Amino acid sequence: MKKILLSALVALSLSAAELKMATTTSTDNTGLLDALKPLYEKESGNTLKWVAVGTGAALKLGEDCNADVLFVHSPKVEKEFVNKGFGVDRTPVMYNDFIIVADKSLADKFKGKSLKESLELIRTEKMPFISRGDKSGTDNKEKGLWKNIGGVPEKESWYIQSGQGMLASIKIAEEKKGVILTDRGTYIKYEADAKANPNLVIVSEGDDSLKNFYSVIAVNPKHCKNVNYEETSKFIKWLVSDETLKAISDFKLLDKPLFIVDAKSRKE
Protein backbone atom coordinates (compact mmCIF):
# COMPACT_ATOMS: atom_id res chain seq x y z
CA MET A 1 0.00 0.00 0.00
CA LYS A 2 2.83 2.42 0.90
CA LYS A 3 4.51 1.71 -2.43
CA ILE A 4 1.27 2.41 -4.30
CA LEU A 5 0.76 5.70 -2.45
CA LEU A 6 4.38 6.69 -3.04
CA SER A 7 4.07 5.90 -6.75
CA ALA A 8 0.88 7.97 -6.95
CA LEU A 9 2.56 10.93 -5.24
CA VAL A 10 5.57 10.72 -7.55
CA ALA A 11 3.29 10.56 -10.59
CA LEU A 12 1.33 13.57 -9.33
CA SER A 13 4.48 15.60 -8.72
CA LEU A 14 5.78 14.78 -12.20
CA SER A 15 2.49 15.73 -13.87
CA ALA A 16 2.09 19.01 -11.97
CA ALA A 17 3.46 22.14 -13.60
CA GLU A 18 4.30 25.69 -12.60
CA LEU A 19 2.63 28.06 -15.04
CA LYS A 20 4.32 31.45 -15.29
CA MET A 21 2.06 34.35 -16.22
CA ALA A 22 2.91 37.96 -17.01
CA THR A 23 -0.08 40.20 -16.41
CA THR A 24 -1.15 43.76 -15.73
CA THR A 25 -1.37 45.59 -12.44
CA SER A 26 -5.13 45.97 -12.85
CA THR A 27 -5.84 42.23 -12.83
CA ASP A 28 -3.56 41.93 -9.81
CA ASN A 29 -4.57 45.08 -7.87
CA THR A 30 -8.27 44.27 -8.07
CA GLY A 31 -7.77 40.87 -6.43
CA LEU A 32 -9.22 38.96 -9.39
CA LEU A 33 -6.17 36.72 -9.80
CA ASP A 34 -6.14 35.91 -6.09
CA ALA A 35 -9.73 34.73 -6.51
CA LEU A 36 -9.03 32.64 -9.62
CA LYS A 37 -5.73 31.08 -8.52
CA PRO A 38 -7.13 28.51 -6.03
CA LEU A 39 -9.86 27.50 -8.51
CA TYR A 40 -7.32 26.83 -11.24
CA GLU A 41 -4.82 25.09 -9.00
CA LYS A 42 -7.46 22.81 -7.49
CA GLU A 43 -8.76 21.75 -10.89
CA SER A 44 -5.42 21.42 -12.72
CA GLY A 45 -3.03 20.35 -9.97
CA ASN A 46 -0.64 22.98 -11.32
CA THR A 47 0.79 26.06 -9.63
CA LEU A 48 0.02 29.49 -11.08
CA LYS A 49 2.54 32.25 -10.47
CA TRP A 50 2.48 35.71 -11.96
CA VAL A 51 4.29 39.01 -12.16
CA ALA A 52 2.12 42.14 -12.50
CA VAL A 53 3.53 44.93 -14.66
CA GLY A 54 2.29 47.17 -17.46
CA THR A 55 1.11 45.50 -20.66
CA GLY A 56 4.25 46.63 -22.51
CA ALA A 57 6.50 45.06 -19.89
CA ALA A 58 4.36 41.91 -19.79
CA LEU A 59 4.68 41.49 -23.56
CA LYS A 60 8.45 41.97 -23.28
CA LEU A 61 8.59 39.18 -20.69
CA GLY A 62 6.82 36.97 -23.20
CA GLU A 63 9.11 38.04 -26.04
CA ASP A 64 12.13 37.25 -23.85
CA CYS A 65 10.74 33.78 -23.03
CA ASN A 66 10.28 34.60 -19.34
CA ALA A 67 6.57 33.71 -19.22
CA ASP A 68 4.30 30.96 -20.51
CA VAL A 69 1.15 33.02 -20.80
CA LEU A 70 0.14 36.70 -20.88
CA PHE A 71 -3.06 38.27 -19.55
CA VAL A 72 -3.09 41.85 -20.84
CA HIS A 73 -5.26 44.72 -22.08
CA SER A 74 -3.95 46.70 -25.02
CA PRO A 75 -5.40 45.20 -28.23
CA LYS A 76 -3.24 47.07 -30.74
CA VAL A 77 0.11 46.06 -29.25
CA GLU A 78 -1.19 42.56 -28.47
CA LYS A 79 -1.95 42.02 -32.16
CA GLU A 80 1.49 43.35 -33.09
CA PHE A 81 3.02 40.88 -30.61
CA VAL A 82 1.18 37.98 -32.24
CA ASN A 83 1.93 39.18 -35.79
CA LYS A 84 5.64 39.26 -34.99
CA GLY A 85 5.48 35.59 -34.04
CA PHE A 86 5.97 36.03 -30.29
CA GLY A 87 2.48 34.91 -29.26
CA VAL A 88 -0.30 32.58 -30.38
CA ASP A 89 -3.88 31.74 -29.45
CA ARG A 90 -4.86 35.28 -28.45
CA THR A 91 -8.28 34.86 -26.82
CA PRO A 92 -10.71 37.56 -25.56
CA VAL A 93 -11.76 37.12 -21.93
CA MET A 94 -13.44 40.19 -20.45
CA TYR A 95 -13.64 43.95 -20.37
CA ASN A 96 -14.38 46.87 -18.13
CA ASP A 97 -13.93 50.51 -19.06
CA PHE A 98 -11.64 53.43 -18.48
CA ILE A 99 -12.83 56.41 -16.47
CA ILE A 100 -11.37 59.77 -15.50
CA VAL A 101 -11.35 60.43 -11.78
CA ALA A 102 -10.44 63.66 -10.03
CA ASP A 103 -10.19 65.18 -6.59
CA LYS A 104 -13.59 66.03 -5.13
CA SER A 105 -12.70 69.75 -5.17
CA LEU A 106 -12.45 69.63 -8.98
CA ALA A 107 -15.56 67.58 -9.71
CA ASP A 108 -17.98 70.45 -10.37
CA LYS A 109 -15.76 71.79 -13.16
CA PHE A 110 -16.39 68.63 -15.18
CA LYS A 111 -20.18 68.56 -14.93
CA GLY A 112 -21.89 68.26 -18.30
CA LYS A 113 -18.63 67.95 -20.23
CA SER A 114 -17.80 65.32 -22.83
CA LEU A 115 -14.58 63.32 -22.70
CA LYS A 116 -12.92 65.69 -25.18
CA GLU A 117 -14.09 68.73 -23.22
CA SER A 118 -12.85 67.18 -19.98
CA LEU A 119 -9.36 66.68 -21.38
CA GLU A 120 -9.34 70.23 -22.76
CA LEU A 121 -10.38 71.49 -19.31
CA ILE A 122 -7.47 69.63 -17.66
CA ARG A 123 -5.05 71.17 -20.17
CA THR A 124 -6.49 74.70 -19.94
CA GLU A 125 -6.57 74.80 -16.13
CA LYS A 126 -3.26 72.92 -15.78
CA MET A 127 -4.76 70.43 -13.33
CA PRO A 128 -2.19 67.97 -11.94
CA PHE A 129 -2.62 64.95 -14.21
CA ILE A 130 -0.97 61.65 -13.31
CA SER A 131 0.11 59.48 -16.21
CA ARG A 132 1.34 55.90 -15.73
CA GLY A 133 4.16 56.58 -18.19
CA ASP A 134 4.97 52.85 -18.33
CA LYS A 135 3.70 51.66 -21.74
CA SER A 136 0.89 49.79 -20.00
CA GLY A 137 -2.54 49.31 -21.56
CA THR A 138 -3.81 52.25 -19.53
CA ASP A 139 -0.84 54.39 -20.55
CA ASN A 140 -1.39 53.54 -24.22
CA LYS A 141 -5.07 54.46 -23.95
CA GLU A 142 -4.40 57.71 -22.10
CA LYS A 143 -1.77 58.91 -24.56
CA GLY A 144 -4.07 58.00 -27.45
CA LEU A 145 -6.79 60.22 -25.96
CA TRP A 146 -4.38 63.17 -25.69
CA LYS A 147 -3.20 62.63 -29.27
CA ASN A 148 -6.80 62.89 -30.41
CA ILE A 149 -7.00 66.47 -29.08
CA GLY A 150 -3.65 67.83 -30.21
CA GLY A 151 -0.88 65.83 -28.60
CA VAL A 152 0.45 64.36 -25.36
CA PRO A 153 1.43 67.21 -22.98
CA GLU A 154 4.61 65.45 -21.83
CA LYS A 155 6.64 68.67 -21.45
CA GLU A 156 4.04 70.41 -19.27
CA SER A 157 4.81 70.68 -15.56
CA TRP A 158 1.27 69.66 -14.59
CA TYR A 159 1.61 66.37 -16.52
CA ILE A 160 3.27 63.96 -14.08
CA GLN A 161 4.47 60.51 -15.15
CA SER A 162 4.53 58.12 -12.21
CA GLY A 163 6.18 55.09 -13.80
CA GLN A 164 4.13 52.98 -11.39
CA GLY A 165 1.18 50.60 -11.43
CA MET A 166 -2.46 51.62 -11.46
CA LEU A 167 -3.32 51.60 -7.77
CA ALA A 168 -0.06 53.33 -6.82
CA SER A 169 -0.68 55.97 -9.50
CA ILE A 170 -4.22 56.57 -8.23
CA LYS A 171 -2.79 57.23 -4.78
CA ILE A 172 -0.35 59.76 -6.25
CA ALA A 173 -3.28 61.51 -7.95
CA GLU A 174 -5.00 61.58 -4.57
CA GLU A 175 -1.95 63.12 -2.91
CA LYS A 176 -1.65 65.74 -5.66
CA LYS A 177 -5.39 66.49 -5.54
CA GLY A 178 -5.34 65.91 -9.25
CA VAL A 179 -6.76 63.84 -12.08
CA ILE A 180 -6.04 60.40 -13.56
CA LEU A 181 -7.33 57.93 -16.15
CA THR A 182 -7.90 54.50 -14.62
CA ASP A 183 -9.66 51.26 -15.39
CA ARG A 184 -12.91 50.98 -13.48
CA GLY A 185 -11.95 47.74 -11.76
CA THR A 186 -8.92 49.25 -10.02
CA TYR A 187 -10.93 52.33 -9.10
CA ILE A 188 -13.56 50.15 -7.39
CA LYS A 189 -10.74 48.48 -5.45
CA TYR A 190 -9.47 51.95 -4.44
CA GLU A 191 -13.03 52.96 -3.55
CA ALA A 192 -13.47 49.84 -1.40
CA ASP A 193 -10.17 50.49 0.39
CA ALA A 194 -11.47 53.99 1.14
CA LYS A 195 -14.62 52.51 2.76
CA ALA A 196 -16.75 53.83 -0.11
CA ASN A 197 -15.70 57.42 0.66
CA PRO A 198 -12.83 58.10 -1.77
CA ASN A 199 -11.14 61.47 -2.26
CA LEU A 200 -11.10 60.89 -6.01
CA VAL A 201 -14.48 60.68 -7.75
CA ILE A 202 -15.55 59.80 -11.29
CA VAL A 203 -15.80 62.91 -13.48
CA SER A 204 -15.90 61.40 -16.99
CA GLU A 205 -17.20 58.01 -18.10
CA GLY A 206 -19.24 56.21 -20.73
CA ASP A 207 -17.59 57.42 -23.92
CA ASP A 208 -17.53 54.68 -26.59
CA SER A 209 -13.74 54.94 -26.86
CA LEU A 210 -13.20 53.99 -23.23
CA LYS A 211 -13.91 50.25 -23.28
CA ASN A 212 -10.99 48.27 -21.86
CA PHE A 213 -10.59 44.79 -23.35
CA TYR A 214 -8.54 42.01 -21.76
CA SER A 215 -7.17 39.00 -23.62
CA VAL A 216 -5.00 36.00 -22.82
CA ILE A 217 -2.10 35.02 -25.10
CA ALA A 218 0.12 31.94 -25.16
CA VAL A 219 3.81 32.59 -25.74
CA ASN A 220 4.70 31.00 -29.08
CA PRO A 221 6.55 27.69 -28.49
CA LYS A 222 8.25 28.11 -31.87
CA HIS A 223 9.83 31.31 -30.54
CA CYS A 224 10.48 30.07 -27.00
CA LYS A 225 11.39 26.40 -26.71
CA ASN A 226 11.25 26.49 -22.91
CA VAL A 227 7.58 27.51 -22.51
CA ASN A 228 4.95 25.05 -21.34
CA TYR A 229 2.59 25.43 -24.27
CA GLU A 230 0.58 22.30 -23.48
CA GLU A 231 -0.45 23.50 -20.01
CA THR A 232 -0.87 27.07 -21.25
CA SER A 233 -3.39 25.86 -23.84
CA LYS A 234 -5.31 24.06 -21.12
CA PHE A 235 -5.17 27.18 -18.93
CA ILE A 236 -6.62 29.35 -21.72
CA LYS A 237 -9.48 26.89 -22.24
CA TRP A 238 -10.07 26.86 -18.48
CA LEU A 239 -10.05 30.66 -18.30
CA VAL A 240 -12.80 31.01 -20.91
CA SER A 241 -14.85 28.04 -19.71
CA ASP A 242 -18.39 28.77 -18.55
CA GLU A 243 -17.48 28.06 -14.92
CA THR A 244 -14.51 30.44 -14.86
CA LEU A 245 -16.32 33.18 -16.74
CA LYS A 246 -19.09 32.95 -14.16
CA ALA A 247 -16.50 33.32 -11.38
CA ILE A 248 -15.17 36.45 -13.12
CA SER A 249 -18.70 37.84 -13.51
CA ASP A 250 -19.43 37.16 -9.85
CA PHE A 251 -16.24 38.88 -8.66
CA LYS A 252 -17.41 42.10 -6.98
CA LEU A 253 -16.36 44.79 -4.54
CA LEU A 254 -18.93 47.07 -2.89
CA ASP A 255 -21.43 44.82 -4.70
CA LYS A 256 -20.13 46.18 -8.03
CA PRO A 257 -18.82 43.86 -10.77
CA LEU A 258 -15.26 44.71 -11.77
CA PHE A 259 -15.27 42.95 -15.14
CA ILE A 260 -17.78 41.95 -17.81
CA VAL A 261 -17.01 38.69 -19.59
CA ASP A 262 -17.06 38.72 -23.38
CA ALA A 263 -15.11 35.63 -24.39
CA LYS A 264 -18.15 34.19 -26.14
CA SER A 265 -19.16 37.31 -28.05
CA ARG A 266 -16.20 39.48 -29.05
CA LYS A 267 -14.89 39.04 -32.58
CA GLU A 268 -11.64 40.70 -33.61
From TrEMBL:
Record's keyword annotation contains Signal: yes
InterPro entries for the chain: ABC-Tungstate_binding, PBP_domain, TupA
One GO MF term attached to the UniProt entry: ABC-type tungstate transporter activity
Keywords: Signal
Residue ranges constituting the PBP domain according to the UniProt record: 19-243
First and last residue of the signal peptide: 1-22
Record PANTHER family: EXTRACELLULAR TUNGSTATE BINDING PROTEIN
The protein's name in its UniProt record: Tungsten ABC transporter substrate-binding protein
The organism's taxonomic lineage, starting at the top: Bacteria, Pseudomonadati, Campylobacterota, Epsilonproteobacteria, Campylobacterales
